[in-house]
Amino acid sequence: MHKAHVAAYAHLSAQPIDRGTMTASASEKTGPTPLLLVEGITKRFGDLIANDAVDFDILAGEIHALLGENGAGKSTLVKMLFGSLKPDGGRIVWNGEPVSIPNPSAARHLGIGMVFQHFSLFDSLTVAENIALSLEDDVPLPTVADEAGRLGEVYGLTLNPEALAGDLSVGERQRVEIIRCLLQEPSLIILDEPTSVLTPQEAERLFETLDKLKAEGKSILYISHKLDEVKRLCDRATVLRHGKVVAQCDPRTETAKSLAAMMVGEEVQAVRRTHDAPAGDDSGRDIVLGVHNLDQPPIGPFSTPLRAIHMNVYAGEVFGIAGVAGNGQSELFEALSGEQLQDNPNAVTIGGTPAGRLGPNGRRRLGAAFAPEERFGHAAVATMPLTENILLSRHASDASAYQSGGRLGMLRRSALGRTLSRVVDAMDVRKSGENPDAGTLSGGNLQKLILGREFDRRPRLFIVNQPTWGVDAGAAARIRQALMDAATAGAGALVISQDLDELLEMCDRIAVIHDGEMSEPLDARTVTREQLGLLMGGAEPEKHHGVAA
Amino acid sequence: MSPDVIQAILITVVTAATPLLIAALGELVVERSGVLNLGVEGMMIIGAVTGFGAAQITGSPWAGVLVAIVCGALFSLPFAVLTLSLATNQVATGLSLTLLGLGVAGMIGEQFVGLPGVRLEAIAIPGLVDIPLIGRLLFGQDPIFYLSILLAFGVWWFIFRTRAGLTLRAVGDSHGSAHALGINVLRVRYLAVMFGGACAGLAGAHLSLVYIPQWVENMTAGRGWIALALVVFASWLPLRVVIGAYLFGAVTIAQFHAQAQGVAIPSQFLSALPYLATIVVLVLISSNRRMTMRNTPASLGKPFVPDR
User: Fold this and answer.
1) What is the distance in angstroms between the Cα of A547 and the nearest Cα belonging to chain B?
2) Which pLDDT score is estimated for A283?
């Protein structure tokens, strides 16, 4: 293990470190004792080195950013700081004392609190019960509710303690997490991608809370890959790439572009806008997807009903649907893909043909293609090889290409193999071996395959939900480019996404879905982020903030 | 029918319901922790045979009760080790536990076949037992009956009024979140499974020391399965288990009375009634999804493997 360390350090010092940066050990010598000092932390999962001799420090009263792409090792590092994972090497120094953090409870005793990326709330319990669970002592529920209310008032985090966690909006769930964390009076608060599910307005409210906490002398470790907010909020940033610290800097003096270059290690290619749908005049263009008064009752207890959805997607355009997670996006996707059928065949038309009573294969035969949000369990099967995953979505719509023997339905493996190589070439899918299981691909490569198998059909209509969620910047740029190219070639694309930047970059028109209702589409060239943000929050701020505590 | 006859019938209903109630309360706690243990029948019969044996050997029915509780809990341990520590499939493991229990009990019990049993005598509460109509029904029963009522309220109070019960519900709702909070998920589940085993053992002791004070092979006769159905029937609420247990107990007794009265209902139909009722209830509660989600342990049956 010692040898591995030396090698890792050697690598680090050989790395060209960007201007205006300093290493952790340098700041340790010159500055005050850091609150937290991490030296040479290493974590391996099998052959993969998730964290390779990571060094960094956090001072009291600072907001420190941990920047990096998906898979750079941020979450692994944080899990070790919070005691959910055990480091394989290196040491953690807290207030000048070397410590070991065997479990989350030990982390909390030290004064480290964490707000999780995927909120770890218990849906069937109330807000007060959720908060009480995170306290070490057995505090009666009314006391918990009072205390939560007091903190909520101080930091602007209003909540109803009697509400079921499963009924809360994502923003409200995050408030529960933060209050839960604050009740333990931590001196370091770790926030893992806190704004990934918030509207811009909700995010701004979160930033105000964080500024207040900082003013009280608390330290915050802020994990993100959103550069604007890191520049807005953070005093220092540590950049991780492939598990190594590649730079430390003051984000306020950097540009978003220079930060991105540190994260990715190369200049990210901007997506070229290859088409521009003619504005205003819709008369001459084909409607590839028509949705008319689509109503759908909630499917499950935590699902959103769809209310009178109405839209037309024209050939040659990219139509975006923005919205905060859980406002009916999945339900809309399932209604359009045919996983949920409509009563009225005309509620959904594809290429002018009524499709409301058709299942996914019927709709695919009309020239539609779908890529759902969840890669495993919905779009692909982890334990099947790539060729079989291609067959999964195309066995019916391209039956003649992949099956022979009439009713016997014998698979034509050679044809599947040729399709796989076409998809791999077209989308630059990086894989190990000829035809590995889908589970061995990284998130970005699997997503490229899932979209690529649909592009390969040259569909007239492309419906995709969260196309670049959890995908690294390079793969995301490729996916966006492919979607825009498809539109240029005359297809219509409907893109459901939480990422406003992505939508503004790709789309011709953008509508917002909130609580199962869809806004009128807006011209993407003229709309502002603020307008979209207001619509995403329901355009009724009172409704959003007014939950009595 | 005279009031005394009605009371006599009700007493048989309560006696038939008590083992169902106790086993179901135990399984309710297990399932609230997110573990589905289909081995209730097996743990119950182990309780029945060890309880009978211990009472035989010592001559004390109370020793039998104690041994049955301990053996029920111990017998749940292999299930706990396999499904919790080794994360095996809970359904398959639970079924094997039932088969194993029936076999082991038959083997241990061979020497007890035909022996006269030791009965755990009823305890009449002085004064109250003489109340007309309900006196003997409520205050002239065996001690395990009183225990079952205390257990029902105890389990309710534990689950909804204590911190430990909140932890139990949290583990059953989302073991991943519970682990992230620093709750020892496996410890909670081990304790819950062993509590379930102890309850099933006690239920078995009721069968072989109160209900039919002798040992007969396969004497549980599917009561463990009824207890399992009962937990779902009660939508994981302890006080509803009480209602359900007496309802199912009444159906069991109705079989005998129907036969005695010469009513032409096939006994197979009556034995199937509890399961039919469970299916009907499942259909009814599924229409109120919100209620179901509030009480159904979301991680029921899912193995938990912590990161290392």
Assistant:
1) 21
2) 56
CATH superfamily, region A287-542: P-loop containing nucleotide triphosphate hydrolases (3.40.50.300)
Q: A138–B163: do the CB atoms touch at under 8 Å?
A: yes
Report the topology of domain A59-84+102-264: Rossmann fold (3.40.50)
pLDDT digits (tens, 9 = 90+) for B230-272: 998 888 999 999 999 999 888 888 877 777 777 777 777 877 8
| B303 within some domain | no
Substitution target from B31, B160, B177, B188 for chain A, most A beta carbons within 10 A: B177
| pTM beyond cutoff 0.90 | no
Q: Which domain holds residue B163?
A: 3-295
Does the beta-carbon distance from B289 to A122 stay under 8 Å? no
The string of pLDDT tens digits covering residues A433-461 is 889 988 888 778 899 999 999 999 999 99
- Residue B69 falls inside a structural domain: yes
**A99 membership: H or E segment, kind and range:** strand A97-99
Distance from CA of B142 to the nearest CA of A (A): 37
How close are the terminal C-alpha atoms of chain A, in Å? Answer: 53
Could you tell me which of B306, B286, B281 has the C-alpha nearest to residue B85? B306
Placement of tokens 């099933």 in the chain: B200
Residue B103 maps to a domain = yes
Residue A175 sits at the chain B interface (C-beta within 8 Å): no
What's the gap in Å between the CA of B186 and the closest CA on chain A?
14
Residue B232 included in any domain: yes
Dihedral, CA of residue B291, residue B296, residue B299 and residue B300, to nearest 10:
-160
* Chain A residues with beta carbon closer than 8 angstroms to that of B177: 120-122
Domain count along chain B: 1
Name the band, by pLDDT with cuts 50, 70 and 90, for residue A277: low
Q: What pLDDT, on the 0 to 100 scale, is given for residue A105? A: 81
Both tokens of A89, joined, read 């090497």
Q: Looking at CA atoms only, how far is residue B73 from chain A in angstroms? A: 28
- Which of A124, A125, A164 is the best residue to mutate to test the B interface, defined by the most B CB atoms within 10 Å of its own CB? A124
Contact by Cβ (8 Å): A289, A349: yes
Q: Which two tokens stand for residue B130?
A: 């003489």
Q: Is the pLDDT of residue B294 over 80?
A: no
Contact residues, chain A, for B182 at CB < 8 Å: 83, 103-105, 108
The tens digit of pLDDT for each residue in A102-148 reads 888 888 889 998 887 666 789 889 888 998 888 877 778 888 888 88
Cβ-nearest to B173 among A122, A134, A301: A122
Q: Which residue does chain B place closest to A163, by CA atoms? A: B294
Burial of A383 (0-12, 13-18, 19+ CB in 10 A): exposed
Is the per-residue pLDDT at A26 higher than 50? Answer: no
User: Which value does ipTM take for this structure?
Assistant: 0.83
Instruction: Read off the CATH number of the domain in which B199 is found.
Output: 1.10.3470
CB contact under 8 A, B307 and A79: yes
A70-A75-A78-A79 Cα dihedral, nearest 10 degrees: -170
* Interface membership of A362 toward B (CB under 8 Å): no
Sequence spans of domains, chain A: 59-84+102-264, 287-542
Helix (H) or strand (E) holding B266: none
Residue spans of alpha helices (H) in A91-226: 104-110, 127-133, 141-155, 170-182, 200-215
